[in-house]
Amino acid sequence: MESTLGAGTDVVGARTPFAARARKRLRGHAPEIIAYCVVRAVGLVVLAAMASHSGHLVSLLTKWDGSFYLEVARHGYDTALTYRPDGSLVNTDIVFFPLYPFLTGLLGLGLGVTAAALLVSLGSGIVAAVALCGIGEHLYDKRTGVILAALWAAVPTAVVESMAYTESLYTALAALTLLCLLRERWIAAGIAAFFAGLTHPTGIAAALTIGVCLLAALLRGERGGRVWLATAMAPLGMLAYLAWVAVELGRWDGFTYMEERGWGSDPSLAGVWQQIVRSLTHALPLGYEVPVFVLGASLLFALWLTLSRRIRRDGLPVLAFAWISIALALFIGPTYFHAEARFLMPDFPLLLPPAAFLARRNRYTALCALTVCAGLSAWYGGYLLTIWTHSP
C-alpha cells in the first residue's frame, strides 16, 4: 500500500509542475487573447444587431465561400469537369484549399460541421493573436504585441476572422512561420509553412519568405542542413495539393483551369489597375471603394515598415513576408478585386508600425485609437454581410 501511494504521489507531483507551467503560460498570453476576443466580440454584437432583419447570425457567418468549405467538410471535393450546354465550365469546390475543411470535418464528427467550422476559425484567431503578440514582443515589446493582435482583430474585413473562412487559420500558420524564423527555429518554420500552403491561395508567401531567409543565411556564411531542409519542405504542402487537383481533373493545369474557366478568375495586374482607376474616378458602392483604400494604406504601411531601422536590422522575415503578400494580392484580378482587402488580411506585418507607434503613446490614446478601429471594423463587417451583395 505504501508503495502504491508513493507511486501515485510521484505521478501527481510530476503533473503539478506541468499544470503550473501551463497556467503560467496561459496567464502570460491572457492580454493578447483578451484583447483579440473583446474586439471580435464587438464585431459580432454589431453584426447580430444589423442581422436582425437579414437572417440568422450563423447563416451569415457561413455564407459565400463558407458554404463551399462546409460542403467539402461534409461530402469531400467535387472532382468532376462538367460543362453547360453553352460550353462554359461549371465551377466546383476543388479550388478551395484542404486544411480548413479537413479540420472542420474532423472536429465536426463530434460537434457538427457548422459549429466545428466556426470553432476552428475562433481557435485559429486566438492562436494567430498569440503568435502576432510574440512577433511584436520579439521585435519591440509586449505592449506592441498586444496592440498588434488587437489591430489585426479590427482590420476592415475582420468579420471574416469569425466566419467559416480560411483567413484566421492561414494567418495563424503564417505568423507561426515568421515567429519561428525570428527565433531561428528553422524546422518548425518549415512545418508551419508546409501547412500554410495547404490553407490559402497566397499560402506560398510563407514558403517564399523562408527562401529569402535562406539566401540571407547563405550570404552570412551559414551552411546548416536545417536551413535547407526547412526551405525544401515549406512549399510541399501547396505543391502536393496542386498536383492532386491536376490528377483528379486530368489536366496538368487543373487548378488554374478551374479558377479561370469555372470561377472567372483572371489574375492580371493591368486589370487591378483598371479597377483602381475606376474606383477613383467613379462613384461606386462602398464595397468597391474600401479595397482601394486598404491597398493604398497597405503600400504606405509597407514603406513605413521598410524604413524602420529595427525591422531592417532584426526583422527580415517580417519585411519579406509583407512585400511578398502584397505582390501576390495584386494579382487577384479584376473579377474578385472587391475581395482585395480580405486577401491582404493575413499580411499582418503591415500593422507593426502603427502598433509600435500606439505602444509609445499613453494608454488612453492607444485605447481610443483601438476603440475607433474596432467600431469602424464592426460596422463595415455588418455592411459586408447584410448590405453588400458580393463575398467579403
Automatic annotation (TrEMBL):
Which keywords describe this protein according to UniProt?
A: Endoplasmic reticulum, Glycosyltransferase, GPI-anchor biosynthesis, Membrane, Transferase, Transmembrane, Transmembrane helix
What's any GO biological process attached to this entry? GPI anchor biosynthetic process
Q: Where mainly found?
A: endoplasmic reticulum
Could you give one GO CC term from the UniProt record?
Answer: membrane
Q: Where are the transmembrane segments?
A: 33-51, 106-133, 145-166, 186-215, 227-247, 286-306, 318-337, 343-359, 366-388
This protein's superkingdom?
A: Bacteria
Instruction: Describe its membrane topology.
Output: Multi-pass membrane protein
Q: In which pathway does it act?
A: Glycolipid biosynthesis; glycosylphosphatidylinositol-anchor biosynthesis
Compartment annotation: Endoplasmic reticulum membrane
> Do the record's keywords include Membrane?
yes
Annotated GO MF terms = alpha-1,6-mannosyltransferase activity; GPI mannosyltransferase activity
Xref: PANTHER family:
GPI MANNOSYLTRANSFERASE 2 (PTHR12468:SF2)
Instruction: Output this protein's name.
Output: Glycosyltransferase RgtA/B/C/D-like domain-containing protein
Biological source species: Actinospica acidithermotolerans
